[in-house]
Amino acid sequence: MIELTLPGMTCGGCARGVTAAIKAIDPTAEVVTDVANRKVQVTTAVDTEAVKDAVKKAGYLPA
Ligand SMILES: [Cu+2]
Question: Under CATH, to which class is 2-57 assigned?
Fold first, then answer.
């Protein structure tokens, strides 16, 4: 399980964007967003760097 802190994920719209970006690289990923704490937990076979890359490209820089 990968946990990222995304300071820019500030609302439900962001959470959906982050989730979509991760699902785009792994449709089977389990993504749990916690907007209040700016955290996302991802259960995926894809490696951490690829997940970070995907969320960065969507505009959310991991802390
Ligand atoms: Cu937002």
Answer: alpha beta
What is the 11 CA–ligand 1 centroid distance (Å)? 4
Ligand 1 mean position to 8 CA, how many Å?
8
Q: Tell me: the pLDDT tens digits for 2-60?
A: 999 999 999 999 999 999 999 999 999 999 999 999 999 999 999 999 999 999 999 99
Cβ atoms of 18 and 55 within 8 Å: the answer is yes
Q: From the CA of 35, how far away is ligand 1's center (Å)?
A: 9
